[in-house]
Specification:
Strand content of chain A: 15-25%
Number of helices of chain A: 6
Number of strands of chain A: 6
Radius of gyration of chain A: 18 Å
CATH architecture of the largest domain in chain A: Orthogonal Bundle
Strand order of the largest sheet of chain A: 1-3-2
Oligomer: homodimer
Order of helices and strands of chain A: HHEHHEEEEHEH
CATH topology of the largest domain in chain A: Arc Repressor Mutant, subunit A
CATH superfamily of the largest domain in chain A: Winged helix-like DNA-binding domain superfamily/Winged helix DNA-binding domain
Helix content of chain A: 40-55%
Largest sheet of chain A: 3 strands, antiparallel
Shape of chain A: globular
Chain lengths: 144, 144
DNA sequence: TATGATTTTGAAAATCACTATCAAGATAGC
DNA sequence: GCTATCTTGATAGTGATTTTCAAAATCATA
């Protein structure tokens, strides 16, 4: 049972909201979890379509929204205007290092940066809530 | 002559690209520079319209693109999906602290964070190019 | 300061990513 | 199984941005 915990979280969320555990929802979660990549709604749509050719775009978006609500997924609005979705469960807070050539994503955390970010926010009299940080560069493979 | 330098930069950019220095372009730059705020295309459009009621949306977008190209303006794609534009000339690199209640923007820089970001990128074998960091919180005025 | 090649304009249509609508179908408590 | 309720896919509708295009403006040259 590879995604037992995630499936349980989703089922539980649907139950508490009086929503139904449809075939499509099951399948979309499963396919989403099996792709270890930050994907766009369209990429997920095309992948799901291979198995369920009649699935609609709206169902993909609706299910992604549910997955975000129950904490299995995070939506990322990137600099270039695209929106990508990443697995959230089991991943602690992190930021991203992105290769500007090949688009590779690396999850990074630096506790010292986190600490300084919080300090900076407080220095300006703000109550800190969250942040986002994206670092862009050229990765080893693309550099040479 | 309040925006002499900026106007010169724009004129020079247009000249090198064999583009024309139209009334609309002059006026949009002038109005943009006089609003000291991170504004949306629509906000700029409405402000320009008060003086030039026939100006089209497309001209606003086309001119903003030119201003970004010549380094007078920066486009910010925010977390909530909106796009805002800020003055760039004369402002050194900075990140943003944004109030989640009133939307207030504060420009911030922390040299120590900058240093650690670069270090982090290099640790992963990347050649650092740029980054973006947005800090979200509740400002003093909105907190009470 | 007229000419004419080239660019720019505003209006409207097109595009893009995403959301809402709705009738038909699926789910699940009884 | 029945039935209330939710979900679905298709389609239309958004809202922001871009493209298209014919008319108007710019500007180097005559």
């Amino acid at each position: 049972m590879p995604w037992e915990k995630e499936e349980k979280i989703f089922e539980e969320y649907l139950r508490t909201k009086n929503l139904k555990h449809s075939e499509q929802r099951k399948e979309i979660l499963y396919i989403f979890l099996n792709i270890d990549k930050h994907l766009t709604a369209n990429e997920l749509y095309r992948t799901v379509q291979r198995k369920y050719p009649t699935v609609g775009y709206a169902t993909i978006y609706r299910t992604l929204k549910l997955l975000c609500e129950c904490g299995l997924c995070r939506e990322l609005k990137l600099e270039d205007g695209t929106t990508r979705y990443e697995h959230l469960y089991g991943h602690q807070h992190h930021d991203h290092l992105i290769c500007t050539k090949c688009g590779r994503f690396i999850e990074v955390v630096d506790p010292e940066i986190e600490r300084l970010q919080e300090k900076l926010v407080k220095q300006h009299g703000f109550y800190p809530e969250r942040h986002r940080m994206e670092l862009y560069g050229v990765c080893k493979r693309c550099k040479k």
